[in-house]
Hints:
With 128 residues, the chain is mainly beta. It is 5% helix and 48% strand. It is built from one helix and eleven strands; from the N terminus they run βββββββββαββ. Strands 2, 4, 5, 6, 9, 10 and 11 form a seven-stranded mixed sheet that branches. The longest helix is centred in the C-terminal third of the chain and has 6 residues, at 104-109. It is globular. The model has no long low-confidence stretch (mean pLDDT 93).
Amino acid sequence: xxxxxxxxxxxxxxxxxxxxxxxxxxxxxxxxxxxxxxxxxxxxxxxxxxxxxxxxxxxxxxxxxxxxxxxxxxxxxxxxxxxxxxxxxxxxxxxxxxxxxxxxxxxxxxxxxxxxxxxxxxxxxxxx
Length: 128
């Protein structure tokens, strides 16, 4: 069973930056991509980004493109979501997930990608 643990959330002013981390451990197919999603209370889950664990290719939702960057550290089994120029509308809980779409292209095309393994999430709050 795979475990994912997010960290790095917090409170930041509009225009500021945060770096979220997702530590992946346990047993999983090594070629499953890692996805980031976010969900505010009462709202639909929103795709944020995805990174392939095989070639490092990435996908970004239009709402974060140009502001967020997703990278991976294979040696430490950690994926990092660098978030710059944060806006109040980025406020929500961010989750990393795996054991889902076989690649980031599929993740991008599926409006509601399903994942078998999720972290507990980390809260990001951006004040105006």
